[in-house]
Write a structure and sequence with these properties.
Blueprint lengths: L2 H19 L7 H4 L17 H25 L16
């Protein structure tokens, strides 16, 4: 696998991981007991921390990419394994 492919696939894993970890640990202003700004949505986060989300996404994407790359090298799950039409061809 080329380094450009590795970077591109890891980037995809990172973005997916960022969306997965985004809602964890976020609390609203009401839950934190903080005052809201006029016009603010009730669901707006009061403790949003992009560094924490980026760190968590980096860890999760690294773990996911290691499993992806190990499968790529060892061939544990192939395209043929994912072909469900072979199960219904009787």
């Amino acid at each position: 696998m080329k380094i450009t492919s590795i970077i591109a696939i890891y980037g995809l894993f990172w973005v997916m991981s960022a969306f997965i970890v985004l809602p964890f640990g976020v609390r609203t202003h009401d839950e934190l007991g903080q005052a809201k700004v006029a016009g603010q949505a009730d669901s707006a986060p009061g403790n949003f921390n992009p560094r924490r989300i980026a760190f968590r996404a980096t860890i999760l994407s690294a773990i996911a990419f290691v499993f992806y790359y190990a499968n790529y090298v060892n061939g544990w799950i192939t395209v043929a394994d994912l072909d469900i039409t072979t199960y219904f061809s009787h």
